[in-house]
Amino acid sequence: MSIAITAAAVVGLILAILGCRRLWARGLVVGILEGLTGLLLLALAALAAAVGLNLRTYDRLTHEIPVATVSFQALGEQRFSAVLVQAAGRTLVFDTYGDEWQLDARILKWRGFATVLGFDTIYRLDRFAGRYRDAAQERTGRRSVHSLNDEPGLDVWAWTRAYPRWLPWVDAVYGSATYMPMVAGATYRVTASPTGLLARPVNEAARKALRQWP
User: Fold this and answer.
1) How many CB atoms lie within 10 A of CB 147?
2) Which of 23, 151, 166, 195 gets the most CB atoms within 10 Å of its CB?
3) Whole-angstrom Cα distance, residue 176 to residue 191?
4) Is the model more confident about 20 or about 68?
């Protein structure tokens, strides 16, 4: 994709320069056409670059793959230090409140021409949060929601939701989440597949928490 974007930008720049030179030499019609074509190619290259920059924040998803591990240490009553280690090696530490933890992801699936070009289902971990088991406490308790990604370039997720007819090669755009009990010493492994996220206990503390989970 980067090669195609660069080629379009170079061709567009050349045509824009040629158009300006023809206008200077009073080749009015041809100059205007070349200039407009060049500007159009430059605009398309800029748009493709913005989309590509945003899609780089997603990862390919062709089968069930590990995406993160989450472990916890108690800091107080319904308060934990959560260590989230992503598959790429990025480690994040959060102060988290509640009885359970939740990890959210965005998933994009493609169809038609996009699949011919080799586009796979892609995902991006979106946010990590603590949650309370009791619904009343969930409304009044201290919240802890942490974003896992910035939004560089053109937000493809927002565009596909706002203008689905403009992006017919997008098959589905949906969110997925998994949540588990949050206890001291517990470690979980999170995997992702084209159907969404799934968390599994890794150690005895996590397995015990699941057995006692109401």
Assistant:
1) 10
2) 23
3) 12
4) 68
CA distances from 150 to 56, 60, 68, 111, 146 (A): 12, 18, 18, 26, 11
Q: Residue ranges of the domains in the chain?
A: 2-55, 59-211
Per DSSP, the residues of 99-163 read: SEEEEEEEEEEE-THHHHTTPPPEEEEEEEEEE-SSHHHHHHSPP-EEE-----SS-HHHHHHH-
- Distance, in Å, from the CA atom of 198 to the CA atom of 190, rounded to the nearest integer, reads 6
Distance CA 203, CA 162 (A): 42
CA atoms in the 13 A half-sphere facing the CB of 172: 13
Check: CB of residue 124 under 8 Å from CB of residue 174: no
Give 75 or 46, the one with higher predicted confidence. Answer: 75
